[in-house]
Write a structure and sequence with these properties.
Keywords: S-adenosyl-L-methionine, Transferase. By secondary structure, the chain is an alpha/beta fold. 34% of the residues lie in helices and 22% in strands. The strands form two sheets. A seven-stranded mixed β-sheet has the order 3-2-1-4-5-9-8. Strands 6-7 form a two-stranded antiparallel ribbon. The structure holds S-adenosylmethionine.
Length: 279
């Protein structure tokens, strides 16, 4: 299971017993979604979940930093367009790929996307199950869910867990996923996203990038090196696969400048990439 570390964590900051202090802003989504207004109660709840996750699972940098509380999908320029379409046509389908705890799934629900339209998927159900405790919706969450690797052709092929969606998905979202994959796996992942999209469907997402592109830390199972694309190399890959109207933009949000200081130092200058690509 990918969430079980086969190697020591590459993050020098992944060892403290306590995470950083939670701000009120960190708790905005959780408070809106659960209806819990007592933020101190939520702080304690998050801390308990974080400790349980840390004891059992691979702790990605974004988990260590409690970034799973903050929805990422609203930060993408394409989201308003996808949201408007999904709200106006309940037949349109959306995937949250690499959903982890599922903060973006919950954000879409809060924003009015019909739960029937959403499929949340990840290589493992481990974080997702903790997400049901975190968001306190184990008995009410009505989105579709499917678990397996998007790099595996069988996952999206006929008869596979997502085979029934092949060629039918209007929007595929992948927040902060590509940078945990090897170069070969990014290619396979992108091919399978292309396949599952309907004609005219859009893949949009974010990932850590590097200028120049290159290998980075080891993947969680230790088998390969993760690959960080540059805007140019990711655009070329997506166009090669068949996507059109590909747009890849690099930026340097505050969280990234600190990552350049304390993440494993290899490859070029790290940036955050936001991409949009149409089938
Ligand atoms: C860095 S986390 C980002 C999670 C979340 N989307 C976010 O924005 O916070 C990367 C996620 O990708 C998932 N993942 C890794 N490899 C995957 C694969 N081959 N197929 C699907 N999901 C994968 C991980 O399990 C993890 O949940």
């Amino acid at each position: 299971m990918a969430s079980e570390p086969q190697q020591p964590s590459p993050y020098p900051y992944a060892t403290p017993d306590q995470p950083r202090q939670l701000t009120d802003e960190d708790l905005t989504l959780l408070s809106h979604y659960t209806g819990e207004k007592d933020l101190d109660k939520l702080r304690e709840h998050v801390l308990n979940i974080w400790k349980a996750v840390k004891a059992k699972l691979w702790v990605y940098a974004c988990i260590q930093r409690l970034m799973f509380l903050q929805p990422r999908i609203p930060t993408h320029d394409f989201y308003p367009q996808a949201l408007a379409a999904l709200k106006s046509d309940p037949d349109l389908l959306v995937l949250d790929i690499g959903c982890c705890f599922g903060q973006d799934t919950r954000q879409m629900i809060l924003d009015g996307v019909p739960t029937e339209s959403i499929t949340s998927t990840d290589i493992t159900s481990d974080y997702w199950e903790f997400g049901k405790d975190l968001f306190k919706d184990r008995d009410t969450l009505a989105v579709h869910e499917a678990f397996g690797s998007f790099t595996d052709p069988a996952f999206t092929a006929a008869g596979g867990p997502l085979g029934h969606l092949s060629g039918r998905v209007a929007f595929a979202w992948a927040g902060a996923v590509l940078h945990v994959l090897s170069e070969e796996d990014v290619r396979a992942f992108a091919k399978h996203v292309y396949k599952i999209l309907a004609s005219g469907g859009v893949w949009f997402g974010t990932c850590v990038g590097s200028e120049p592109a290159g290998e980075w830390a080891a993947t969680p199972n230790g088998d390969a090196k993760r690959y960080l694309h540059s805007p140019t190399s990711l655009k070329a890959l997506l166009q090669h696969i068949g996507f059109s109207q590909v747009d890849v933009v690099g930026s340097m949000p505050a969280e990234m400048s600190s990552m350049n200081d304390d993440m494993v130092q290899s490859g070029g200058q790290k940036t955050m990439l936001a991409y949009t690509a149409r089938k």
